[in-house]
Amino acid sequence: SLAANPRALAAGFLRAAAARGAELFAPEEIMTVAPRRSGVRATTRSGRAITARHLVFATGYELPRGVPAHGHRIVSTWAIATRPQRRAPWPDPVLIWEASESYLYLRTTADGRLLCGGGDEKIADAGARDALLGRKTAWLQRRLAALLPQVDPRIGYAWGGSFGASAQGLPTIGAVPGMRNCYAVLGYGGNGITFSMMAAQMLRNTLSGAGDADLDLVAFRSHR
After folding, report:
1. Three-class SS of residue 165?
2. What is the spatial distance between Cα 174 and Cα 201, in angstroms, rounded to a whole number?
C-alpha cells in the first residue's frame, strides 16, 4: 500500500509548477469567469483580472457556476482517530477498506493512533452532516471495537466531511459544455487522487492537440 499526506503532496506539486514558470495567485477567490474566443478571463474578489488560454476547474465536490451538475451528488462521511495505542495493531502501515455496505476503512497514523472512517450517507448539507457527528462517532467506535477487540477504541478526535459521487463511480473530466476554453476535473469518491492523475494526463494530451481516446468515457455527456 501507499500512503501520502495530501496537504504536503499538493504543496509539493505547486512548488514544482512554480519552479517551471507557473504563476500562483493565492489566496484568491474567483468570482466571474468569462470565456472568450482566444482564451478565458477570470476576475477575483479583490478585483484582479487573470487571463489564460485555458481554464481548468478542479474544485472537488463543489461545482462552480455554469458547470453542469447532472449525475453529481454530494455524500457525507465521518471518521474517528483513537488515542495513541500501546502497540501497533498490525506490523506494517497497511490501509484496510471493507468491501461491504456500510464499509469501514482503517489505517494507523504516525503518532500511533488508529483512524477509522465510514458510515456514508447521501447528505449534502454541512449542518445536517455535523448534527450527526455524535451518533456516527459512537457507531464507528462500536464497529471498530467489534472488528478489533484488542485495540483501545477510546476517541481522541472525531469529524465529518463531504465528497462528490456519481452513479457510475466515475469522475467527470473534459470540456465544460457551453463554456469555450474551459475544462473540469471532478474526481469522485475515494479514488480522487488516482482520477486526478488520469485527468492531468488526459487534459495535457487534449490541450497539446494530441487528443485522448479515453476522454469520451468520462466526459460530461457520458453521465447523461
Report:
1. strand
2. 11
**How far, in Å, are 73, 103, 153 from residue 95 at the CA level?**
26, 13, 18
- pLDDT band, residue 92 (cuts 50/70/90): confident
For the chain, strand residue ranges (E) read 30-35, 40-44, 49-52, 55-57, 72-82, 96-97, 104-108, 114-121, 155-166, 172-175, 182-186
Q: What is the mean pLDDT of residues 117-140?
A: 95
Phi, psi (deg, nearest 5) at residue 11: -65, -40
C-alpha of 104 from chain center: 18
| Number of other CB atoms surrounding residue 171 within 10 Å | 25
CB 54 within 8 A of CB 183: yes
- Rounded to the nearest angstrom, the gap between the alpha carbon of residue 188 and the centroid of all alpha carbons in its chain is 6
Given a cut of 50, is residue 205 above it in pLDDT?
Answer: yes
| Pairing mode, strands 114-121 and 55-57 | unpaired
- Three-class SS of residue 68? coil
**How far is residue 35 from each of residues 3, 64, 151, 209, 220, measured CA to CA in Å?**
38, 14, 55, 19, 18
Cα Rg of the chain (Å, integer): 20
Q: How far apart are CA 151 and CA 15, in angstroms?
A: 40
Q: Are 33 and 182 in contact (CB under 8 A)?
A: yes
Q: How many helices (H) and strands (E) does the chain have?
A: 4, 11
The backbone torsions φ and ψ at residue 202, rounded to the nearest 5 degrees and listed phi first, read -65, -45
